[in-house]
Amino acid sequence: MTARSYPDRLAAHAVLILAVAVTFVPLVWMFGMSLKPPQLVFTDPLNPLPLAPTLENYANVFRTANVARQFVNSVVFAGGVTLGQLAIAVPAAYFFSRHDSRAANLLFAAFLLTLPVPFVVFYVPNYILMSRLDLLNTYPGMILPQIASAYGIFLLRQHFKSFPQSIIEAARIDGAAEWTIIWRVVLPANRAAIAALAIFVFINTWNEFVWPLLIARDPEMHILTVGVAQFASGEGGIQWSTIMAAAALATLPTLLAYLFIRRQILNVILEGAVKG
Amino acid sequence: MSYGATSKSSSRPRRLKLLRPYLLVLPAAVFLGLFVYWPVVLVTFLSFFEWNMVSPQMTFVGLENFASRFADPAFYRLLFQSLLYIAIALLGNFLLPVGLAMLTLQLGGRCGDVYQSLIFTPTVVAVSVGALLWQYIYLPTGGLLNAFLGLFGVPGNNWLNDPATALGSIGVITAWKFMGFNYLIALAGLMAIPKEYLEAARVDGAAGWSFVRWVLIPLLMPTVLFVMLTAILQALPNAFVPIEILTRGGPNDASNNLLYATYQSAFQFFQIGKAGAEAVMLMLLLGGAAVWQFRILDRSLTYDR
């Protein structure tokens, strides 16, 4: 499918470069405006580069919001959900990769069926449950319902399937129990896929918005993405340079993570999708 | 008799042994049961009642919540607008990413890798942050879009507050935020097509239209279908946060859809029964589409094995 003619390649490049440009406009303007002096933020909107760059907006964000606390909340929330999802997904994915019985397949289908159920369906019952358990405005309240996802099971099963059964048999003959086999044999051998899944879940949870907002109204428990939105709905008018600085601060961690481990993240999706 | 007795005494440990591997699935089953299956059951149950989430009084109303939805013209408007969101998703999160993936594949090699990384980038940006960035772009005065249009003498607009453009403006945000993910999925599927199939067809003399019709299209079909159905299923969930942050379904419900209206019924108007009925209808719609998706994929994903 490789195009060899020169004009064809040129046209393909042109379209793709246009797509990349549109993709990056909001991000470039975000960083640019976050560095513009507040009074100049709307002058020359077509030029994202600040003429007199300043860190004033960032200082402003740190002054008005407890960014450090929000950062910690984001880390605990995303970290907790990631660990939880791995803890339920690894053994279940291992089970489904090794069992092909009717019952196992039915169970797997039942798990898969949860994937398209829209999240709004869970919000009311889970909110009621969490409030009855007195877990509103707490980390467990934010984290526990978010762990319930079949996505990791679905993705890891594909990777575990290609793991040779002979190695598992050998470990079993040596007397290893199933949990030991998972912990000592399957986990280390698939650590790249598991790490990539972890990164992916972490980034997605870091970027969550509605559930952490619903369950934790207390500003002390806001995560970064919720905190940014508070700037936009703040009383006394919207200060765009401050919003952009807050948005940049919330985006930098995931953007940096993506910059450094881009290949692993892309590969887990590429492979999961292919084998799925 | 003694034979029966031994078989009975040994069958219990054996059954236990058979069940033991299922312990591996137990943690996942507990979490999914508590936070997914149970909510589905509860929401369905609540859809037969009138309740405001806090009052101890719940009134059984039978199918009234469903009937009142079908009798309400606003419901059909929500349905229509949901289809509009899906149509936008088909353009922005299906046709566009599949097209871009094909172009990327044609270039191949290092160029392809660079485009892959760049186009995927919005996936790691929070959708709430993305919504705010686009709120700036759409600003009537000082916003980027109107400034850009001004270059060509095109008059600007108050994009998010104009009933004619609010829904489309939200749709563009979701296209921007979620296109990269579907692009990568499309790329994955296209890269998985065994090159030997294409070579073999060429050797057999398939060329031109017959090559496209009988070789290329059947091979591309599974991937194309998968991305298309993902785009359809995700259209409403993807639009949720931008709507919540930017328009709350307005102005005058112009950017609302079934999913967001369900959320409003529950958390804004505290009409849990109405929200339940809407949620059940959503589940049936999306669940049906998903079952259909798995079916089609099952049938068409055979070349991989």
UniProtKB/TrEMBL annotation, chain A:
Family, as annotated? Belongs to the binding-protein-dependent transport system permease family.
Q: Which residues cross the membrane?
A: 12-32, 75-96, 103-123, 143-160, 238-261
Q: Which CDD domains match?
A: TM_PBP2
Does the record's keyword annotation contain Transmembrane? yes
Name the membrane topology term.
Multi-pass membrane protein
Superkingdom in the source lineage = Bacteria
Question: Can you cite an annotated GO cellular component?
Answer: plasma membrane
Q: What is its main location?
A: membrane
Could you provide one GO biological process annotation from this protein's UniProt record?
A: transmembrane transport
What is this protein's record name? Carbohydrate ABC transporter permease
User: Where does it localize?
Assistant: Cell membrane
Q: Which UniProt keywords apply?
A: Cell membrane, Membrane, Transmembrane, Transmembrane helix, Transport
| Residues covered by the ABC transmembrane type-1 domain | 71-261
TrEMBL record, chain B:
Membrane-topology annotation of the record: Multi-pass membrane protein
Q: Which Gene3D superfamilies match?
A: MetI-like (1.10.3720.10)
Q: Name one GO biological process term.
A: transmembrane transport
Q: Does the keyword Lyase apply?
A: no
InterPro entries in UniProt: ABC_transporter_permease, MetI-like, MetI-like_sf
Q: Keyword annotations for this protein?
A: Cell membrane, Membrane, Transmembrane, Transmembrane helix, Transport
What is the protein named?
Sugar ABC transporter permease
User: What Pfam families has UniProt attached to this entry?
Assistant: BPD_transp_1
Give the transmembrane ranges: 21-49, 83-105, 117-137, 166-193, 214-236, 279-297
A GO CC term?
plasma membrane
Give its localization: Cell membrane
PANTHER family this protein is in? ABC TRANSPORTER PERMEASE PROTEIN, INNER MEMBRANE ABC TRANSPORTER PERMEASE PROTEIN YCJO
Question: What is the protein's major site of localization?
Answer: membrane
